Amino acid sequence: MAFGQDGDWAIEAQGLVKRFDGFTAVDGVDIRVPRGAIYGILGPNGAGKTTTLRMLLGIIDPDSGVRRVLGHERPTEVARRIGYLPEERGLYPAMKATEAIAFLAALRGVPLKTGRRRARELLEENGLSYAADRQIRQLSKGMAQQVQLLGTLVHEPELVVFDEPFSGLDALNQGKLEKMIRTLAARGTTVIFSTHVIAHAERLCDQVAIIAGGKVPFAGLVDEARDRLRPQVRLETRARDGAWRAALPPDARSEGAFWHFTLPESGVEPLLRALIEGEAGILSLSIERPGLHDAFVAIAGEAAARALQETAQEAEKAA
Ligand SMILES: Nc1ncnc2c1ncn2[C@@H]1O[C@H](COP(=O)(O)OP(=O)(O)OP(=O)(O)O)[C@@H](O)[C@H]1O
């Protein structure tokens, strides 16, 4: 399909490149985000996530490539229909939470009175009423971040862009945010967020773009990424040896009474038949579909997977 020919994309980007002083931070990124989807940009520190999001929002322009956001080639024209949580958090410390949200609404064209009313509603809906009249400086970091997050939703945007929304939140509030993202998508809002945590992308996203070193080696359905790897079999047998051993593929490795191997292309039924007929004495057998982590390793490589893990460890230490 040619660029810009389908109206059903909230975001379409092709060949985005961004260089800083000769260093290529984003190196030809293609992304298509369907309307109403939850879309994750998954990659380690320095992979190019923030730079990509900033280009999509029109905060910076790409050196080359094109993007179309909510049908517009100049994303700033549709800024009022977009909510954005930047990586750098921050609200005016002296402002009360309600005012801070109403202020963000005003920046998106919502009258202050309406913004204040919506701010109170949002705070109440999210169990934060008690923060309404407190100054931002009186709130914890995590709480202030939640207030800022509500500020990105107050003008009821069609598209929300969250840069690392989970970092800085404790487990409880991460869970609340996951729920909020699902609710937004269920109402038809498109959500795109960056993360270095595979579990968040795996649990939440319909589609992901895997990004490493400024390139996107995979963009598409989470299931499609996982289906790139074959299921793994874990087999426990009573018999130590016998005719059944011929049913195991060459990559099978043993560990005590267990065998681990990749499910052969022919599928599970011929395998089971051969094991039974060959008198393996099956004690247990499980077939596991690879997760997004294994898919990430296969797609982006061991080095990128290690970088992702290091990013997560650094973030944990900083929290
Ligand atoms: N304004 C800038 N000037 C120079 N280099 C930049 C600038 N912005 C980003 N970079 C560099 O581009 C690369 C990609 O950065 P980017 O912030 O997009 O990565 P990221 O995946 O969002 O990671 P992080 O979570 O660390 O921000 C990094 O090497 C970064 O140092």
UniProtKB/TrEMBL annotation:
Lineage: Bacteria, Pseudomonadati, Pseudomonadota, Alphaproteobacteria, Sphingomonadales
Family: Belongs to the ABC transporter superfamily.
GO molecular function, one term: ATP binding
Domain annotation ABC transporter: ranges: 11-238
Transport found in the keyword field: yes
Keywords noted in UniProt: ATP-binding, Nucleotide-binding, Transport
Protein's UniProt name: ABC transporter ATP-binding protein
UniProt superkingdom: Bacteria
Species name: Novosphingobium pokkalii
InterPro entries in the record: AAA+_ATPase, ABC_transporter-like_ATP-bd, P-loop_NTPase
